[in-house]
Amino acid sequence: MTQTFNRRIYTFPAFRQAVRQVFGQMDDLKRAARSGRVDKPFAEKLMLAVTRVNGCRYCAYGHTRAALAMGVPESELQRLMAGDLGSFPPHEAVGLAFAQHYAESQGQIDPAAWQRLVETYGEETAQDIMPYLRMITFGNLYGNTFDALLSRLAGKPACGSSLWSELGVLLGVFVLVPLELLRRLGSKKPQQQTQPSA
Rounded distance, CA 90 to CA 3, Å? Predict the structure, then answer.
């Protein structure tokens, strides 16, 4: 029996919407990076927690290398990619568990999980965590869509997808991203994200 590709990928309509959301949230990511409330090693760990759930091999490779370059021990990254969050100190474990929940729930955040994040880090830091989770999810699903195309060519297509959808996503980045960039540059009031959402 032929196996199918079973990682989360983009459909073209979902990708089009995601591109708009990513550009709408660029200010949030810039604000989070400037604030320094989420340091770079922790941001890499958060993104790897999401990547572990979504299974993007490209993001796993890139962000593992980035984390290692920032001094995160390889043994710690191995535990993270194995889902062993209990071995992390409490001040990181809560954020990593939230990142995993965000990915597993596909951005449909449980209010209790959000409340715990806020109680642990404070409202501002909790809000700063969100853009990292959104951006890595975008990268994960785009990478997975590329792998879905490769899998299709090997005779193992993704369930519910099509060749045209996968090609539309992969090639659409060259059209939709420049158009969204132009739209954003022409806009006088960039969108501000105030609530945690997918």
Answer: 40
Task: Write the CA distances from 133 to 151, 165, 186, integer angstroms.
Answer: 26, 24, 27
Q: pLDDT tens for residues 106-160? A: 999 999 999 999 999 999 999 999 999 999 999 999 999 999 999 999 999 999 9
Chain length of the chain? 198
Longest dimension (CA), the chain: 55
* Contacting residues for 134 by C-beta, under 8 A, at least 6 apart: 21, 22, 25, 107, 198
Q: How far apart are CA 89 and CA 91, in angstroms?
A: 6
CA angle (38, 70, 66) in 5-degree steps: 90
Which residue type is seen at 103? A
Q: How many helices (H) does the chain have, and how many strands (E)?
A: 9, 0
Question: Per-residue pLDDT tens for 71-109?
Answer: 999 999 999 999 999 899 999 999 999 999 999 999 999
How many CB atoms lie under 10 A from the CB of residue 84?
11
- Tokens describing residue 126: 């909790």
Residues 6+ apart with CB under 8 A from 23: 180, 181, 183, 184
- CA 129/CA 132 separation, integer angstroms: 6
